[in-house]
Amino acid sequence: MVKYFEENTTFYFDWKQVVQGFWIKYPNPYSSHVLSEDTISREVKDGKLYSKRLLTKTNGVPKWGEMFVKKNSVKIVEESILDPEAKTLTTYSRNFTYNKAMSVVEKVVYRVSDENPSWTMVHRSAWIWSRVLGFSKAIEAFGQDRLRKNYIKMSLGFNYILGCMFPQTAQLATSHLNYQPDDLTMIKSTLAEELQHSLQDKAEKVKDAAKKASDLAKQKTGQFM
After folding, report:
1. What's the mean pLDDT in 119-129?
2. What's the chain's average pLDDT?
3. Of 7, 47, 2, whose CA–CA distance to 152 is shortest?
């Protein structure tokens, strides 16, 4: 069974500003889970810009998920179409690692808001499914919740980048960011989880470095015996 998730987000910056920010939205303080992004191809065809990028993200999982996912990073292919005439930016992304455990296909459309031409509406659609017998429902539910939290981090991080790029517009935008109590609770929970994953990653790196140092010391000791 496929889980479907969608949401709309308004960025209080105009479409051209959002498109400019889209290409440099990483790194930012709210998206430390994004490790790298590389452009694979880019071409202009029929007046549209077609791009393909490879993103690497951390992929922390609960204890029960460690039997299906051995590494804490995932590779994602993102393809985008920028149409300056229609003023739309459409992206399609999918993971190509661990896609048996969980596959996520996502479509995102950035367009001029119907409510205000100085704003940008973002519509996200995502399909999540798993092929792990006996665990698919739990994995899909976990994926849906993880995606929802990642969208919060994405919005916070993107607003941060746009605010740095266009500070005058940001001053006007802040008056529209009226978060409800439930929204703030979700944001705090999401950022706390992000901090925990960051600390876990650092701890793993320290353990790896210590092990390598220990192995090297043993190797050198053996050379003198």
Report:
1. 97
2. 83
3. 7
